[in-house]
Amino acid sequence: MLKQRTIKELIRTTGVGLHSGTKVVLTLSPAAPDTGIIFRRVDLDPVVEFPSNAMAVGDTRMASVLIQDGARVSTVEHLMSACAGLGIDNLYIDVSAEEIPIMDGSASSFVYLLQQAGLEEQDAPKKFIRVLKAVEVRDGKGANEKWARLVPHDGFKLDFFIEFNHPAVDGTAQRANVDFGDVSYIQAVARARTFGFMQDVEMLRGIGLARGGSLENAIVMDEYRILNSDGLRYDDEFVRHKILDAIGDLYLVGHPLIAAYEAHKSGHALNNLLLRELLSHPDAYEIVSYDDVSKAPPSYARQLAQEWSYN
To answer: Within 10 Å of residue 273's Cβ, how many Cβ atoms?
Structure first.
């Protein structure tokens, strides 16, 4: 049986919020089967809980933001991506501020943190959302059109195209295809960092965003080049980070997807609209589990065999 997972023990770290610049204490704790991934604002009295839920995403400006009872927890996508990549179903995530810390701008710090806590199988079947019919959302027209879709596929793979018309980005591959039946999340996706442009920083800070951004937690570019002295971690790091974001955004549906995700210039807003479109069509998906591991999609059988070995 493909079983649910949590972590073995509590673990804690500190960092700063990318957009708020605020110091944040992050605490990860084990959770019982069928709990799901739940964020908790422990700085509020009473504590506010934010279950991972596509319908709870209330803001998508530069990040995915969960909103509950007027409270917010922001920039959840990188940690959600790490949880998806390691197959974690149940987890409590306590934060001491409004935003998840940015760490190094990728998911690798969260992967390391989860590995340090240890992964633990639970005596309950892992639940998947299997896409049965294609669903698609679009925004804009002509050269400005963006779209994202989910189509039936026996596994989980992502195909993403970006277009920024910037020399540093244009000099790298702008399309990437990641099939988790063939590659590991840790190796292929986890280390890809978020990125931004110097000319946007003043504007973003004017609306209360990017206050914690630096060369330590993002790829930063001026009009012509990358400013980070260490360069890129992947030849196509820009589009791989968009895949990392998409994995985290999609995991907010509550269960791992058995589907192929295809996107053209998509972002947090369109990814969330795609989940809402899927959920609005009950005939487009089903909830499934696997008593026999050999019958599970290759992407998830591989995850069980390979990612587990990183502990």
So the answer is: 18
